[in-house]
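Hi L., both proteins are below.
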Amino acid sequence: MATEEVKETVTTVLTQLAAAAPKPATAQVTDALTGAGIAPGVLQVSQSRTPTGLEADAIEAAVLQGKDCVIGQVREGTVTVMVLPVLANGKCFVGS
């Protein structure tokens, strides 16, 4: 898939998911994107709960696409998707 195609897929999938679940869990985001054909090996999804068990304000998903990262965020049912460069560590997110 080309970056623009991945961006379109991420936008469509997250918009559909956010309509049904305005604050989706990590597993819901992962399942929705892999179900749409995003390979698990290039997908990173943030945690939907903090280490203390609180609900996160937003959840983010990133798809590594060559030298690009297609990053989507769901916050209170609103979806934002953008393309950013890959980080120096070769990933889209900092940390584990």
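That was the first. Here is the second:
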Amino acid sequence: MGENGSGQSGWTFLTNHARVLLTVARDPEMRLRDVAVRCGVTERTVQAIVADLEQGGYLARARAADGRRNRYRVNPDAPFRHPAEAGHEIAGLLELLARADDREPGRTPDPSSAMDEGADA
């Protein structure tokens, strides 16, 4: 991997799939275009990731109350995919990263609003 301008290589701990899932958990009615901007990837990439997450049982999509947007529901009970994390649910990761966001100035995320509630809520 290449350098990122600071002399460090460009790898990160979280995949784009994890970033998209976390972003959707923070705001279940966010447009995919805005998810793409927040995650630093293209809208097409986010669409493919959301399709992967839906197929894997991590997200469910429904129409929001306004009938114009989608609303996503995160399945917090879904397990990590890698065998090394077998037996662990994604809820722990989402909660951990939400706590980190709570410490950021100006941020008031509530990932629990997207976790385990009805899609029509």
